[in-house]
Every structure is written in C-alpha cells, then in structure tokens.
UniProtKB/TrEMBL annotation:
CDD domains: CobW-like. Zinc chaperone that directly transfers zinc cofactor to target proteins, thereby activating them. Zinc is transferred from the CXCC motif in the GTPase domain to the zinc binding site in target proteins in a process requiring GTP hydrolysis. Residues 229-250 are annotated as: Disordered. It catalyses: GTP + H2O = GDP + phosphate + H(+). The keyword Nucleotide-binding applies. Pfam families: cobW, CobW_C. SUPFAM superfamilies: Hypothetical protein YjiA, C-terminal domain, P-loop containing nucleoside triphosphate hydrolases. Keywords: Chaperone, Hydrolase, Nucleotide-binding. Belongs to the SIMIBI class G3E GTPase family. ZNG1 subfamily. Signal peptide: none annotated. This is GTP-binding protein. It comes from Roseateles agri. The lineage of its organism: Bacteria, Pseudomonadati, Pseudomonadota, Betaproteobacteria, Burkholderiales.
Amino acid sequence: MSSTASPGLIPATILTGFLGSGKTTLLKRVLHEAHGQKIAIIENEFGEEDIDTSILVTETKEQIIQMNNGCVCCSIREDLRTTLSDLATKRRKGELDFERIVIETTGLADPGPVAQTFFMDDEIAESFLLDSIITLVDAKHADEQLNTRQEARRQIGFADQIFISKADLVDAGAVAELTHRIKHMNPRAPVQTAHFGEVALDKIFDLRGFNLNAKLEIDPDFLTADDHDHHHDHDHDHEHGEHCDHPHHHAHDDDVKSFVFKSDRPFNPAKLEDFLGAIVQVYGPKMLRYKGVLNMKGTDKKVIFQGVHQLMGSDLGPKWMPGEAKTSKMVFIGIDLPQEIFAQGLEGCLA
C-alpha cells in the first residue's frame, strides 16, 4: 500500500451502511450538490435497494453500473475489479467522462474486500486511488443492528468517517450513547449526525483516509477515557443529565474494538517488521484497520504505516520537528484482537 499516488488517479469513495441507513438519500444529495463534478456510481444491487437506482438514473446523467450477482459478499471482488477496469478503459478512450467514483455497497457487505481490491490489483492501482470508507448508521435501529449483526460492527470498524442518520427520530441521550459506543469500536473516525443526507461535500470527498500521512486522528476523549482500559464512567459521560443512572457503553461488549499503543521509546525496525508481519499472518482476517506514526531507531523521519486485513504498507513521513515529542502512536481496530499479545509484542520491539 504505497502512498505515492500519481496525480492522475481517480479518487474512489466506498459508501457503506445497513439497509435503511440512508445511503441512497446521501448519494442523491451528493449528486445534486457536486456541481461541476462528474461522478460514476457503482452500485451493488441487492434486493430492495434496487428500487432506488431508477430514481438515480432519471435524476442525473451519471453512469450507474449494476452488478447483478445476487450475493455480493461472495463474488464482489472479481466483479468489482472488472467493473473498475472497464470504467478506467472507457474513460481513457473518452467514452465515459467522470472524475471520481462512489461505490455503494449493500447493507450486508463487508467493506474489507472492496477496499483490498484497490491495493491487490496493479491495473486498478494504476487508475484509482482509494480515498475513504464512509459508514452510515441509522440512529433508530443502530443498537439492534450492532447487537445482532457483525457486518454492521465491521462497517464501523472500517470507517474513515461515520454519519449517524435519522437522529431526529431518537432523543439526544440515545445519540450520545450511540456515539460513545461507536467511538469504542473506532476512535479514528469522526462521528457526525447527517440530517436527510445533508452533508458538506468536504466531509465525504478527499478525506485521504487511506493515504499514508503523518496525521493519525484519534478522538481525544477516547484516549482520556481508555488509556488503561478502565471500565468506569468518566466525567464526560455525564453530559446527558437524567440518563446517568443506567449503565453506559460497557453494557455492550462489542467484538469490534480498538486499542491504542503509545511509547516514547524508539522501535527497533527489524524487530517491529518481524512482529507486525507475524501478527498480520495470524490475525489479519480479524484486523480491520490499523495505522500508526512511529519513532524508529536510525531515522529522523516519522515512519507511517497502515493496513487493511493482511495488507500492510509503510512509508517515511516528514522529519520530527525540533522539540516535538517523539512518541509512537498506533491504533488497531479489529474483531476480538488479543490486546495483551499485541501490547507485549510491541513492547518487545522497542529499542
């Protein structure tokens, strides 16, 4: 996963979320708002969502590519590859005109394989740049979906940006609880409410979530709350007044969790590479997103790494600034990852 993107690459956004979370509303809104931008939309057709495509087609001049393959989860990687490759070819020949693509996954899809397509295939990587994964969460049904469907939890773990839709249908306390729950699963992704799909385009496009850059945004509240993974309530939980008498987020022990590793001691590069290589082999399928900005022995530059499942990439970033604390910081988001094994292993890689 290299970050050295050539300027001619077409940015791609993956839009995911459960049925009814408002993906189509958001898409239509984007197509109306994005004046002067030509967007190709790839839809994974699946059951009832198909009704919406006719609306999209009549309202805009976009090319919509239906992938009628029944179950998306199984065969999307191959189909998506072909679809993307066709799009790139037609664009080169001047048959199609578009500047970016949005892939709307079905409510049941796992965004992992979709994201991996952009890194595993050279032809695709030469034409497209995966920009970000955006996840929509329906405020009214989120708790039930997150409790019962691992796909819904995975979609949150993968996200670079999360929008809570239909927040007007529940009270503010419920939105705060849901936000809190989401932060535990994914402290990297900003969480915002989206009213009827009204979202500023700069919150959707060019987020550079997959760029290897020295920005590792972790919600500061998450860090203060969970530095030592203590299961007790913190002051910032008590904003909801009368909601304080019932148990908070830890009522949900979600299998998608995140943890942060920090150290002020530099890493030994060879040891770290061996360890990360080993855990990715073992836990890769359960590792959704991971990212870090590292202080490495032997270089005065930051080392940036990130990955999706088994695919991991790293790059040299900018130099540490004079006076800047050379703290390595990593975040791992995954399904039931053994935090102790990771933490001990990473400690063992410090110089």
